[in-house]
Amino acid sequence: MLPKSSQRVAVVIKLANEVAREYDRDYVGTEHVLLAILREGTGVGAAILTRHGITENRLRDEIDKLIKKQMEETWVFGRLPGTPHFRNVIAAAIEQAQQLESKEVCTEHWLLGLLREKGSVAHRALLNLGIKHQDARESVLQFCSEG
Question: Model-level pTM?
């Protein structure tokens, strides 16, 4: 049984579909989820990105460089198919939520999942922008202790 996702994650999934359409894609990729987390703007995931100096324009520029090089096979998730990496990110986000003993999967868990999905556009973009999994995890723990 899948853990409950936060309302914010539902918004992020909707935004990821919109971002994918903006890119004229017929799939949802990790890059679309990452942009959606930042665009949603109110979650811990967005706060961590912002704290690291990541803006939507800066992130979009980095993603644009990376996706020109890569196209992946798709699978169906929601309205648009998702890439295989996207499927792995969902599983990793659930795992991160469970490890952090969260009652629901939130944007910070998705961000950590994106950082664990080596080879994905989002993972490479985050690394290129200076965000590593351990740093983000420490930020998540800091946010959790503050809130």
Answer: 0.71
